[in-house]
Amino acid sequence: MSYSAEISRTSPTAFLFLIDQSGSMADPVGQTKMSRAQFVSDALNRVVVNLIARCSKSEGVRDYFEIGAIGYGGAQVGNALKGPFASKMFHPISDFEKSPISIEQRRQKVPDGAGGVIEQTIQFPIWFTPQADGGTPMRKALRIAAESLAVWCDEHAESYPPTVLHVTDGEPSDGDPEPVAEQLRQIGTDDGDILLFNLHSGQAKGSPLKFADDENHVIDPYGKSLFRMSSELPAAVAQAAREKGYQVSPHARGFFFNVEPVEVVEFFDIGTRASSQSLMLR
Predict the structure, then answer these.
(1) d(CA 225, CA 228)
(2) What is the pLDDT of residue 47?
(3) What pLDDT, in 10s, does the model give residues 109-121?
(4) For 130, 197, 204, 226, which has the most beta carbons within 10 A of its beta carbon?
(5) 258 within some domain
(6) Are 201 and 236 in contact (CB under 8 A)?
(7) Contacts for 240-244: CB closer than 8 Å, 24+ residues apart
(8) How many independent structural domains does the chain possess?
(9) CATH number of the domain within which 139 lies
(10) Which helix (H) or strand (E) holds 224?
């Protein structure tokens, strides 16, 4: 395990978002009217905005990162990006800055400077849109991810390895995903194997778990499977999680189980921040 390669414009890293878009993602989040699918899409769009900000210099956006997304639900499995992004799986971060699919007017609460809050209108760029339909073909989605990532790693052999951030709310409908996930995690660059982090937000046995380090802590059989599918946290990722207040042991995995949808925000932030937080970007 290395995970120490410098990230630069000539040696970028990649983030692949693997998103469950099955019918259950249409369920509402808590007492709100927002669906799980909408919540995850908003979180994805926000993380892209944050990545753009982290790559912005005086002369423009530097391509330290490439981003891809795979959605899976029913018969639809493949690239979750639309418009100019639909032609290939990975795109440099500057493409996102130049070409949002659309821009929405959103209301946002901000501090008023006097201890209160006010609402203001903001421009909210959209790259990902919510979808929710059919079953949960997770195994097929992981296979497509592995094929795409194998090509990326061959083309970027000296780069910090890609990170896959997988969000799901249910069990797979197309067979056991573990063997495919194991194959995916054996792909990598000279700097290390691909990192696969899994978040499950749904109704399952046991208490919520975050960054578990032992399969025996997981009661639910499907949860055990997701735990085994998850990569151990490299040191920089573990440190990023600790800075967020999480208790993270030396063998903790990138694994959230039975958590509320709001945890997706933290999951994305930690999963995408560590590689740029601990390494020199130039």
Answers:
(1) 5
(2) 95
(3) 667 677 777 777 8
(4) 226
(5) yes
(6) no
(7) 240/270, 240/273, 240/274, 240/277, 240/278, 241/211, 241/270, 244/269, 244/270
(8) 1
(9) 3.40.50.410
(10) helix 221-229
Phi, psi angles (nearest 5°) of residue 59: -90, 0
Structural element, H or E, at residue 266: helix 263-277
3-state SS, residue 281: strand
Distance (Å, whole) CA 67 – CA 69: 7
How far apart (Å, rounded) are the C-alpha atoms in residues 22 and 2? 36
Buried b (16+ CB within 10 A) or exposed e, 144-156: bbbebbbebbeeb
Token pair, residue 87, equals 């032609």
Q: Which residue has the tokens 């795109």?
A: 91
Domain hosting residue 134, numbered range: 13-102+130-277
Q: Is 189 helix (H, G, I), strand (E, B) or coil?
A: strand
Helix axes 178-185 and 221-229, enclosed angle (nearest 10) = 20
What's the mean per-residue pLDDT of the chain?
91
What is the C-alpha to C-alpha distance for residues 18 and 211, in angstroms, rounded to an integer?
A: 19
